[in-house]
Amino acid sequence: MSITARHLTITTTAVAAAFLLTACNPHQPAPLEHGTVKKKRHDAATSTPIYENRYRETNCRTVTNALTLTGISRPSTTGGSGGRTSTGGSSGGVSKVKPGSPNKLNKNNSSGSSGGSGGRSRKVCHYQYLGRVQTGVHRTPEAWKVLIVKGDRSRWMPVTETKWRKIKVGDRI
Predict the structure, then answer these.
(1) 47 forms bridges with which residues in the sheet?
(2) Which of 45, 52, 102, 115 is the most exposed place for a label (fewest CB within 10 A)?
(3) Which residues contact 150 (CB under 8 A, 6 or more apart)?
(4) Cα distance between residue 66 and residue 34, in whole Å
(5) pLDDT in tens, 49-102
(6) What are the start-end ranges of the H helices in 24-160?
(7) Cβ pair 138, 50 in contact under 8 A
């Protein structure tokens, strides 16, 4: 084991042990329940619409060509000198072809074609954007909160509306 790996192992072990000691400490203080009110806050109810983009399939066809399925027919100019020689001339305009990853294939080929080409086919479509449609609403209810402080600790505590209206800044609760 190299010195770097040993130092990394020791550091990782020390950090994990420190985390376990602090996470499992039974003497952590309970959440603050009582103290002096420093601020009051009311969050109004909100409704946020949820939208979804809608598309329509157009010009659909089934492709069974092996070259199209594997993406081999895609020309790419990555790598090489792009057909130019070091003297600035051209080597005939050769373009390198980069094979792509296979596209998702249609596992349930219900078109009834079986046989010769192995039945590997997929559906290819163009998509036309139709617009956005509202599909729902995310609602957030009203909330009444007071900031209570005791010593160097503080916490926003949720309260009921009636209690929020009765409490004044500076009160002890």
Answers:
(1) 139
(2) 115
(3) 32, 34, 35, 36
(4) 72
(5) 999 999 999 888 888 865 554 555 455 455 544 444 444 444 444 445 455 555
(6) 66-70
(7) yes
| C-alpha to C-alpha distance for 108 and 114, rounded to whole angstroms | 12
In degrees to the nearest 10, what's the CA dihedral of 120, 126, 132, 138? 20
Q: Are strands 143-150 and 36-43 parallel, antiparallel or unpaired?
A: antiparallel
* pLDDT tens profile 17-56: 666 556 555 666 788 888 999 999 999 999 999 999 999 9
Nearest to 120 by CA among 63, 61, 36: 63
17 sits in the region (left: phi over 0; alpha: psi -120 to 50; else beta) called alpha
Q: Taking a C-beta distance cutoff of 8 angstroms, is the pair 124, 59 a contact?
A: no
Say which DSSP state 162 is in.
Answer: H
| Three-class DSSP category at 103 | coil
Q: What is the pLDDT of residue 141?
A: 94
* pTM of this structure: 0.41
